[in-house]
Design a protein that fits this description.
Low-confidence stretches: none
CATH class: Alpha Beta
Bound molecules: flavin mononucleotide
Helix content: 25-40%
Strand order of the largest sheet: 2-1-3-4-5
Length: 138
């Protein structure tokens, strides 16, 4: 099973989740500046909303995918909305890439909101989620 982890994170919240997921499945978490170089079965793709949309980097990354991707598993952090899945899914649909219905989401600190998130328990939950996905149990 080929697994890759890519993420976009301005403030570091989504990066923490990316690293927990990557460690759990035994790969390296990389930023979107590193395109996929070979086919993958599972791509864990991380993002956060900024002004109710994902960053252009996420859009560019998805539109530039030129390898075969079995499915994308979304993970995200945010302060108000719940998850970036619908934004990423819209972009992936145009590329005929499947988005898994399972996703990982948790709150991410923003100003006075959600201080300390993601916390240790968020990271443990992300790792557990990733292990289950990679074993086909989620
Ligand atoms: C400029 C800016 C705009 C944001 N807009 C939203 C938003 O529209 N909806 C939301 O739920 N959170 C919003 N947030 C909060 C972030 O999505 C949240 O803090 C997230 O965890 C940031 O992830 P990062 O640290 O990986 O960049 C915004 C944060 C910033 C800095």
């Amino acid at each position: 099973m080929n697994i890759a982890v890519r993420y976009y994170s301005r403030g570091g919240n989504t990066k923490k989740i990316a690293e927990a997921i990557a460690k759990a499945v035994g790969v390296e978490a990389k930023t979107l500046s590193e395109p996929l170089s070979s086919d993958v079965d599972i791509l864990f793709l991380g993002s956060a909303p900024y002004g109710f949309d994902v960053d252009d980097e996420v859009k560019k990354f998805i539109s530039g995918i030129d390898v075969s991707v079995g499915k994308v598993v979304n993970f995200s952090t945010s302060a108000v909305i719940r998850s970036t899945k619908k934004y990423a899914e819209k972009l992936l649909t145009k590329k005929n890439i499947a988005m898994a219905k399972e996703e990982f989401y948790c709150r991410g600190a923003f100003g006075v909101l959600h201080k300390g998130r993601p916390n240790e328990s968020d990271l443990a939950a992300a790792a557990d989620f990733a292990k289950k996905i990679s074993k086909g149990e989620a």
